[in-house]
Amino acid sequence: MIKAVRGFKDLLPEEARVFHWLEARAREILLRYGFSEIRLPVLERTELFARSIGEATDIVEKEMYTFVDRNGESLTLRPEATAGVVRAFIEHGLHTRPKPLKLFTIGPMFRHERPQKGRLRQFHQVDVEVFGAASAGMDAELVALALEILEAGGAGDLRLEVNSLGCPTCRKPYRESLQAFLRARRDRLCEDCRRRAERNPLRALDCKREECQVEYREAPELTAFLCEGCREHHRAFKAYLEEVGLAPVENPRLVRGLDYYTRTIFEIKAPGLGAQDTVAAGGRYDGLVSALGGPETPAVGFAIGMERWFLIARPSESPGLSPELFIAPLGEEARRWAFQLAFRLRKKGLRVETDHEGRSLKALLRQANRLSAQRVLILGEEELRKKQALLKDLSSGRQIPLPFRDLRDLANRILIEIRF
Ligand code: ATP
Ligand code: MG
User: Fold this and answer.
1) Any domain includes 183
2) CATH at residue 367
3) Nearest ligand for residue 112 CA
4) Ligand 1 atom at minimal distance to the Cα of residue 282
5) Do 287 and 412 lie in a common domain?
6) Which domain holds residue 134?
7) Do the domain assignments include residue 271?
8) CA 418 / ligand 2 centre spacing (Å)
9) Which of 13, 93, 226, 245 is geometrically suited to a Cys-Cys bond with 231, CB 3.0 to 4.6 A?
10) pLDDT tens across 196-228, in order?
């Protein structure tokens, strides 16, 4: 038996239905907030991710699905969406459009990580990006948007953590101070963190090992190093949030797994999720568009992890997809009628099921019950001869005789009976 690849998950119908429902909630709210959808390829040149996410990050160092294609080009399945959105923004000259430009995209991402609860190798994100807005108000608006989307999916008890990563100017002295701190404790750190201390000290703070985290309680904090502009931005961001009652929790050790962030970063956590509890994460990346060859463009965005959102979602609407009518035909001729009736009634928008397999009346009624059909139309040789079918309401048990002249007439009578 051939099985699915490890970390790649099938969504069975019940799960797919919830995913679809969640996506619909996200789209609805995003459109209300003035966002437009952009659809991008899942494959990009490897260089795009190496340059945007950063060479010395976990994603680029060890998590990417990278291969050389038949033309000898190095390609990578996207591990996240921002790089691709920025690539498209530059490639299609979207900076000439009115600002701010608000875009979102929904789709699969790929990372070669250890699969576990809330962590897959193919996972899905709702990714949201705003270009051409520099002020803290937009950062706060995106946080509010992320929370509204998650809550519309039934997620409650969310925790908002915020931090500022400053700008390249204030991050430089901080990086040096943190590096000195890490080097002084080298012996007590895990192998990854020793490497991070040299290559990308900030990333050490994101280590998942408890032993390292204990050490980092004493680590220098970036907030103490922020320059005037970054400090003011961070203050304004938090003030905006507080004004609408979204109490942010300051987490000075919050960093992100991608190098492109500047100033605001945030994570939304759901304590019920266990180890992988970050449902949504994002921040500002003012330097990325120009770093990838576009014009200087401030930008801010976030991504919701669909699988983790799914775990805390409470779909509220019953899908309401049970058939409005089950046609139970008995005999060859009745089955031909049933086929045509179903065809006509579905075109009129009715949810109709029927049978082609020649089952017995008993089996057909059982099937109608299993599908939670609202009504059954019984159509046997006798009914055809008498030109009178029987429509039975399964919840009330009420039976209505439906006399008809021909097939078209019967279709109309059914429609009138059900719709009016
Ligand atoms: P984590 O610290 O959990 O690894 P991350 O910092 O790598 O997260 P981001 O790149 O910020 O995650 O992605 C945004 C969101 O996408 C995460 O908060 C999470 O909900 C989801 N996500 C990231 N990686 C995975 C994965 N391997 N499987 C499922 N969801 C994921
Ligand atoms: Mg990760």
Assistant:
1) no
2) 3.40.50.800
3) 1
4) 11
5) no
6) 13-167+227-312
7) yes
8) 52
9) 226
10) 999 889 989 988 889 999 999 999 999 899 999
What pLDDT is stored for residue 274 in this prediction? 87
Buried b (16+ CB within 10 A) or exposed e, 25-34: bbbebbeebe
Same domain for 278 and 376: no
Binding-site residues, ligand 1, Cβ < 6 A: 80, 111, 113, 118-120, 123, 125, 256-257, 276, 278-281, 303, 305, 307-308
Distance 112 CA to ligand 2 centre (A): 10
Note whether 42 and 103 are same-domain residues.
yes
Q: To test ligand 1's pocket by mutation, which of 116, 123, 273 has the most ligand atoms within 8 angstroms of CB?
A: 123
DSSP string, 349-405: T--EEE-SS---HHHHHHHHHHTT-SEEEEE-HHHHHHTEEEEEETTT--EEEEE-S
203 belongs to a structural domain: no
| Same domain as 161, residue 38 | yes
Domain count, the chain: 2
Q: By C-alpha distance, which of 314, 246, 254 is closest to 278? A: 254
Say how many Å lie between the CA of residue 58 and the centre of ligand 2. Answer: 7
Pairing, β 36-37 against β 101-110: parallel
pLDDT at 120 over 90: yes
- Which ligand 1 atom minimizes the distance to the CA of 308? 20
